[in-house]
Design brief:
The complex is a heterodimer of chains A (260) and B (538). Chain A contains 11 helices and 10 strands. Chain A has 260 residues and is an alpha/beta fold. Chain A folds into 2 domains: 168 residues, 3-Layer(aba) Sandwich (Rossmann fold), CATH 3.40.50.300; 80 residues, no CATH class. In chain A, strands 6-7-8-3-9-10 form a 6-stranded mixed sheet, with helices on both faces. In chain A, α5 crosses α6. With 538 residues, chain B is mainly α. Chain B folds into 2 domains: 171 residues, no CATH class; 337 residues, Orthogonal Bundle (ABC transporter involved in vitamin B12 uptake, BtuC), CATH 1.10.3470. In chain B, 71% of the residues lie in helices and 2% in strands. Chain B is built from 24 helices and 6 strands. In chain B, the strands form 3 sheets. In chain B, strands 1-2 form a two-stranded antiparallel sheet. In chain B, strands 3-6 form a two-stranded antiparallel ribbon. Chain B has a two-stranded antiparallel ribbon with strand order 4-5. The longest helix of chain B is centred in the N-terminal third of the chain and has 33 residues. The relative contact order of chain B is 0.12. The chains are: A alpha/beta (260), B mainly alpha (538). At the A-B interface, α2, α3, α4, α5 and α6 of A face α15, α16, α17, α18 and α23 of B.
Chain lengths: 260, 538
Amino acid sequence: MALLEVDRIVKRFGGLLAVNDVSFAVDTGEIVSMIGPNGAGKTTAFNCITGLYPLSGGDVRFGGYSLMGMPPHRITKLGIARTFQNIRLFSYMTAVDNVMVGEHCRMHAHVWDALLHTPTARNEERAVEARALQTLRKLSLERYADVYARNLPYGLQRRLEIARALASGPRLLLLDEPAAGLNPQEKVELMGVISRLRDDGLTIFLIEHDMRVVMGISDRIVVLDHGEKIAEGSPKEVREDPRVIDAYLGHGASEAMRTA
Amino acid sequence: MPDIADPQARVDLPDTGRQTRAAESSAVLWLVLAGGVLLLLLGWLLPWFVEQTASGVGHSPMDVIVSSPTGIGWLAVWAMGICMLALLAGVGYDVFAQLTERATPFRWSRIRAGLAILGGLCVLLIFILVVTRSELVFGDQTPDALTDNAVWMMLTGFGLLAFSYGLRPWVVTHGGLAFTAVAFVVGGLFPLMFNQSPGFVVWGAQFAGIYTLLALGLNVVVGFAGLLDLGYAAFFAIGAYSTASLSSAAHGIHLPFWVIIFIGAAAAGLFGALLGAPTLRLRGDYLAIVTLGFGEIVPDAARNSLFGNLARPSTGGPNGISGVDSPAFPTHGHAIFDYGLFGANPRPYYYTILILVALIVVVLRNVERSRLGRAWVAIREDEVAAAATGINTVQTKLLAFAIGASVSGFAGAFFGAMLGTVTPDNFEFAVSVTALTTVVLGGIGNITGVIVGALLVSFVIFWVLPGLQEWMGTVGNTVGISGLSTIQYSDYKYVVYGLILIGIMLLRPSGLLPSRARKVELETGAESEPLAAVRETG
């Protein structure tokens, strides 16, 4: 059974149909990419999956459970973590605090534990901090543990966002344009990080514009255009799909390429 | 979210959390230092300027040391004075060194510590001599006069100066501990300092204590969670009316104070969450307006005995409820120690509120560093990201409202028992404004800061302004301008609020002792968009 099933989802903003009748599935252990021209509805689809936008129609199932109407924090607790296209770190918190927030939904300290600083809370805090440092180490960020997120270089901020997402112990990781703004060196590092995470047993679903990254790591690719799915398949299949070429290069481009 | 690439958005924030903590500690240091110098100068100068008997200010120790019989006290006072002058010279030198950007030589810090410790021992010696009255240090003065304001102000001021200046390296590394120690010593000695003028103790217990509690509670909502609340007095009212209803003749219920104070806090907390619920999708101005409305509704409901019309019990209309029981140990009825009326002896009330403030500070420090505190900061910075990271934003925001309100309820319950009368007029909008002014003045989001803010505001509003009346009478007589004594200075307290708010916004928008992260947030104008609003547009 697929880990994530997106079943004919529809998202309407007033008269605008941002996502129209899109279905696809992500299997456990896969790296799936979603591509498409700007304004194709990729990020909207992400927001629908993570509960930031309520669906106008259709259903999203995760591990068999319907996510319909579920608030974002419940979805995160079920095991879907995400990053954002325009980095949304907690800028005025240190790196390690950012990652500790990531583990919030796995923590058990109650209000009274917080108020009275009980041994439960104290031990948990200590354990969570240790784990957060470990997560930072995994992404080679341990040197920056005490640095404010906003003072980190851009590339490291992207990585810190992944660290924060990982701290919630997800089964499925959604990355929204993780390579945006990275230099070629950082992109290579990012690809390494993503495949390592997959080797650790994580399923990864990402939006990306950089074709080198997409073609390099994806098992499967979903293509969106004008809110509709126009293609799905292996990198090779998608690359040769005339509808995809048309969507990216303009109507008739596939025809021209064939005859050329 | 400020644009990361925009260099304009980069305001000075130290690179790491450790640097921030060091900077905050050094701010505490300067504050303690300034407080010490101020007290010292006041203690020294006040007796020369103000009539001694009328204002209860008392004598300067320098006036009377000459007649010390055995000379020990004489020696101690002089030694203390010399240490003090040397340290003051040191302060001057340091300021000079900082202005001219010259480095302070290391050896000086040793001398400084030596002077501080020597002076501290002298203070201790004088203290013992005065308290045990083993030697008439101050000549033929009566013992009561000896323990009067000026002497204690000088001794405390000197202690603070020696502590903060002489032991500076230690204070910088242990800012929080240092502040706690100072607060407890000064707080504990406070009623002794003002032995002959219980009015000052009344002030301490009534206004400074209550407003410190209010500021601490409001800081949870405004500072930690970043939710502007203009109707905070409502929860104060709920706490006070809980006490008035449950321990007075009004309804014939007489629960012990120590139970009621928690009932009051719980009731206020409940209403805090109830008010919070409809405001979850609002932010900034809109949130402020809704809370403002709630702040107006509660006293009005009490004034019109709304609950009395719906069902008993009544809130007593515009006259409120009077004859509220005074607190007692351990229980009401068979009390070991009854506080008695506040007006008769304010001292037990003073110590009670000191302990309550200490308790609340400990609890709020705990919350600030907990999972919940972290979640508040996360929501304050970016609510959508916080939700996507797994924080239940609804529950977390409601908890901020509830915890903030229950601190206010706590204060209200104490207030009701202290005054013995609770009327709707005690909970006007002005109370909310005062609480907000104290938080803004002290430093939004910083516990130490808001305590300082609350003390300063209450000091000015409730002691300096009424005191001006008396002092200006003297000054007016001396100078010959009788008009000075006819001004009703207390009527100008709203002018003072206004001046404080304008001044702070222009000069130091993040408050006297800002929380660094909060400071940069305020300056870059980063504001988090409520999740509910995002989901609604979606």
